[in-house]
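Me: I hope this is not a bother. Any chance you could explain this protein sequence and its structure tokens? It all follows right here:
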Amino acid sequence: MIEPLLEVRGVRYAALIGPNGEIVTRGGPQIGEQPGSSLTDLVSAGQAVGRSLTGAMNTASWNELLLDVDGGPVLLTTHGDQVLVTAFDDVANLGRVRFALRRVLGAG
């Protein structure tokens, strides 16, 4: 599932995190630089922010959350009860990454 994302210019790594915080699959040229616990911690924090924002905005759910962290931007995208983590090199590539995500997730 994540292989097509890894072909997008600028994508450093991608990982699918399950509902219980387990890594379902991951890959990419820089995935070895991200310990599994760091990925799951990032997703847990993102989910907490998403829940807080949905409560504040009175919406049922969140779809995407972009974090611009020291190592570069990371996009968290919900996929059912899982979260897809996509790290890439520059915020300017966000459109390219989101387009690829729509194709991979079947929403476009």
